[in-house]
Design goal:
With about 230 residues, this protein is mainly α. It has a domain of about 140 residues. Helices cover about 50% and strands about 0% of the residues. It has seven helices and no strands. α1 packs parallel to α5. The longest helix has 26 residues. The chain is elongated, with a radius of gyration of 23 Å.
């Protein structure tokens, strides 16, 4: 049965799509470090229930709730207890304008934070979901996505190719994408001269090496982790 859940996600859905895809690679990796890490992290990932046939969109319908924040802003019904034992409870009489009420609520919230003498950076959001991204990782997701494409869709399918031939195969992959929006080669892998080609091949190796690092991080229960 498909589970219904609210959209109080700890991060953008695309983040969890990438995590899912890297975990699928890890699950079928032959790397001894990855396999060993997966044994240790098996209890952590048990609820994901990923199989070789799993497709993200279908899987998300029944497992998306795993990535929701445990605590979020909501209206409490009469007599209902808050989910978060440390939540700030305030009464908001609807007898004034939203502008005035918002200002007063903001003042109360700020005062509550000051009273707790928080040690974290001011304004920093603290995730409460069980499955959390590596702190500060989200701005780099475009790079993580390109690394995934190169590693999964080119390198793993053409492991005998090296150097220029692997670079050419990568170019063919990008230009052959059905969706024209994505049918373009990343700037880091483009070249106009022999010097550019050497740089492009070096960048391609980095993509692969970094993707392998992310796969290992994921096997250890982190995404994306340091790479």
């Amino acid at each position: 049965m498909e589970k219904k859940f609210q959209t109080n996600l700890a991060a953008r859905k695309e983040a969890f799509r990438l995590w899912f895809e890297y975990l699928r690679i890890a699950n079928f990796s032959k790397d001894t470090k990855v396999k060993a890490a997966l044994i240790v992290s098996e209890p952590y990932y048990r609820q994901w229930e990923i199989t070789k046939a799993s497709k993200f969109d279908t899987w998300w319908k029944t497992h998306g709730h795993l990535f929701e924040e445990k605590f979020f802003v909501r209206e409490l019904k009469a007599g209902e207890a808050p989910l978060d034992p440390d939540a700030l409870l305030i009464e908001v009489p609807l007898t004034q304008s939203p502008t005035i009420l918002t200002k007063k609520a903001k003042e109360l919230i700020q005062a509550a934070f000051d009273a707790r003498e928080r040690t974290e950076r001011k304004g920093k959001k603290k995730p409460t979901a069980y499955y959390q991204l590596t702190e500060g990782s989200e701005p780099k997701f475009d790079a993580v996505r390109e690394m995934l494409s190169v590693y999964r869709d080119v390198y793993l399918k053409h492991q005998k190719l090296k150097g220029e031939k692997l670079l050419e195969a990568t170019h063919r992959y990008y230009l052959g994408r059905k969706n024209k929006r994505w049918a373009k080669i990343p700037m880091a892998l483009m070249y106009d001269s022999d010097g550019d080609k050497i740089r492009a091949m070096r960048n391609l190796r980095r993509y692969i090496q970094k993707a392998e690092k992310v796969v290992l991080n994921v096997a250890r229960g982190q995404f994306p982790g340091e790479y």
